[in-house]
Amino acid sequence: MASLANKINSKSPKNIPAEGFTVKAAMKNSKVKPPPISGAYKEKSSVPTKFRKYYERGDFPVSIEHDAKGNKIAWKVEIEKLDYHHYLPLFFEGLCETQHPYDFLARQGIHDMLEHGGAKVLPVIPQLIIPIKHALNTRNRKVICTTLKALLHLVESGDLVGEALVPYYRQILPMLNAFKNSNLNIGDGIDYGQQKRENIGDLINETLEELEKRGGSDAYINIKYMVPTYESCVQN
Amino acid sequence: MCHIAYRFQLAGYRDEIEYCSVGDNSEVERWPESGFVKKLQRKKDGYFYYFNRSRECADKDLFKIKLFEY
């Protein structure tokens, strides 16, 4: 009988995969599976944006010019006469795009509108938060880079813009907190691509510093709340 | 000088004199701090070009530029 029991035991499979915290996991011959990957840094699949739809429909008063220096936008109407409440959020929505010409158009359109907008930018800020949040949430490194540069330009485009952004840190900063340490650690080596400003960790630090400098007295404490590892560039 | 010539010629004009003589462009919009051209209306279709505060040509390439005078 004993030999039969041994035979049965030797035939029973060992290391049966089992989910954690189940009855099966408590069995001697089971092996508990490791927890699944959370996917916190996994790129999200992008859906076609409204920006793309509007561009293909010919709603934007712009045309792309290809010249020796690179591409450029020609505006069919003067930027000063544009309705910022309509166009600027649409261009910011285009930040999620990674395909040409949509990505270039969105980037350049935002640049021109912020550069020449003056006081017209400030009232539009509440409408820009959702597109910025969506762009950062894609977790696509290229998109995050472009969005951070756009955010930097936005903060610098007017005197009160930085302060107007403070109530929206809760929407914008979580992704900055997640990618803050995404840096290139090469010891004493030279990062030859540093002039391209594509290092996300550095860009995030630069953006946070600019937000703090231009965000008024409440900026630092609000940034610190969302990004605990951030150290002030003004107080220290 | 080079960026001024570049910007006018990109818009289809030879220089500032020609730009001011065509259409209703009596004056060129410039950036207040640097005096660089800010906005030009294109000659062929009337579209608008907006230029940056800074020069298009990087400082390291400045010595390579040839500027022709008429």
Keyphrases for this structure?
heterodimer, A: 236 residues, mainly alpha, Serine Threonine Protein Phosphatase 5, Tetratricopeptide repeat, two-stranded parallel sheet, two-stranded antiparallel sheet, 10 helices, globular, B: 70 residues, alpha+beta, 3 strands, Meiosis expressed gene 1 protein homolog (chain B), Meiosis-expressed_gene_1 (chain B), Hsp70 protein binding (chain A), ARM-type_fold (chain A)
By DSSP, the count of extended strands of chain A is 4
| Main beta sheet of chain A | 2 strands, parallel
Question: And the CATH topology of the largest domain in chain A?
Answer: Serine Threonine Protein Phosphatase 5, Tetratricopeptide repeat
DSSP strand tally of chain B: 3
Proportion of residues in extended strands of chain B: 5-15%
Structural commentary:
- The complex is a heterodimer of chains A (236) and B (70).
- Chain A has 236 residues and is mainly α.
- Chain A folds into two domains: 2-32, no CATH class; 50-182 and 194-226, Serine Threonine Protein Phosphatase 5, Tetratricopeptide repeat (Alpha Horseshoe), CATH 1.25.40.
- Helix content of chain A is 47%, strand content 8%.
- Chain A is built from ten helices and four strands.
- In chain A, the strands form two sheets. In chain A, strands 1-2 form a two-stranded parallel sheet. In chain A, strands 3-4 form a two-stranded antiparallel sheet.
- Chain A is globular, with a radius of gyration of 25 Å.
- Chain A starts with a helix and ends in a 10-residue tail after the last helix.
- The mean pLDDT of chain A is 90.
- With 70 residues, chain B is α+β, with helices and mostly antiparallel strands.
- Chain B has one domain.
- Chain B is 21% helix and 14% strand.
- Chain B has two helices and three strands; from the N terminus they run H-H-E-E-E.
- A three-stranded antiparallel beta sheet of chain B has the order 1-2-3, with helices on one face.
- In chain B, a hairpin with a 6-residue loop joins strand 1 and strand 2.
- The longest helix of chain B has 9 residues, at 2-10.
- Chain B is globular and about 35 Å long.
